[in-house]
User: What shape does this take?
Amino acid sequence: MNAEIVIGEEAGRPVHIDMEELLATRLLVQGNSGSGKSHLLRRLLEESAGMVQQIVIDPEGDFVSLADEFSHVVVDAASYSQGELEALGSRVREHRASVVLALEGLEVEQQIKACAIFLNALFDAPREHWYPALVVVDEAQMFAPAAAGEMAEDTRRLTLSAMTNLMCRGRKRGLAGIVATQRLAKLAKNVAAEASNFLMGRTFLDIDMVRAADLLGMERRQAERIRDLQRGSFVGLGPAVSRRPVTVKIGPVRTGNKAAVSGLMPLPEAPKADMAALLTESLVEEAAAKAPPPAPVRTAPPVKDLAETMADMSQSPARQAAEPVDRTEAVAAILAALASDPKSPFQPASALYQAFLAGCRSKGIHIPPLDLIGFRREFACALAGLDRVDEESRMRLLSIASDIPDDVLSPFLVIARSAMEGRDAPDEEELARAYGTSSPGRVRRLLEHFEREGLIAVREIFGGARKITVPALEAAA
Assistant: This one.
């Protein structure tokens, strides 16, 4: 099989890339935004698609269209958890699948973590799966930064380790790294230095031109050649490209990308008044719809006011009739009324208990049916919505929550009820209200505490969703 592909031409003569040599010597592509890096990578991938397995790390969604023309499988990282991405990486190596890891649905730091996890899984594959594969990393300066940025230090160490393994030690495992970057100065030197082949596109900053000229073996006064390159032209050098620097005009491609239109196009022909109306009509309503809901008011009303409110809620002509009171039903109604008050979860237990006693007296129950400890657990049940489940389910939930402390009982019951109803996770607002907080951080720490205690299992999805299961419920099923 011919191991060469035509990447472009120089003065009418085709310029080839030896794919077998490229697998052994790796490639670095550099060029400012708009220089044609993505076009170059697409040409290389299209021409070699039938020769070698291809794995593309795609932070901007530029290469997902390869799946329309070739056998590439698009993996949307936002739909998978960390463990699932690791398993995917292992299967990609085992089955020699060409894939595009699409990261565009994630925040930048999540993109970096997902890329590092996936690359590490490729690198750690069993020896019997070390088949040759091209690993193309676009925007490599994100994943192998030369200096610490705004990302967390542990994330930076993770991604640098993954990229260094790919470029330094990947060859023995069949992995041939192809990294593309906008600026050499932003790319970690130990990653860039491992490439033996170079395709340098247009760049204007002196520091990048000098470094590119050094890599190409040019004298520094020849660096101006890189500044004068046309869009889509690259200076190539290396054992897989050419033994001397050649200026390559990259050839055409068959697949497109979904990038925004970069050329000129006619503006819409709309009168100024109509355009102004399109921009401003219903603007207030749209902004209000997107605005976050106001945080719950934390200010606790005086105990006396809360007790009077409960008494007013429970009094009615029917209640004032001289009929025997069903204490169980009456207590449940008082607890339900108290739990339905949006301010209740943010009140201290003592204030809630006083309101509960006031509600009992208004119904003719003068002997307290619950002490403070019993009230806290019963109120937690009411707040968790256990009155909306059947008696058998209620008893099952209470049995698995028998050892849960009172202060976190309600959020645990919310999670357990959600799992019993077959939902992936409870509503965020419902869970926060049960815990008496409006802080996402406190809810996250509570979930971490439950998971450490073995009470729940949380499956985080990179796109931001989560699935929570309760092992005790599954065991009892």
The two ends are 58 Å apart (CA to CA).
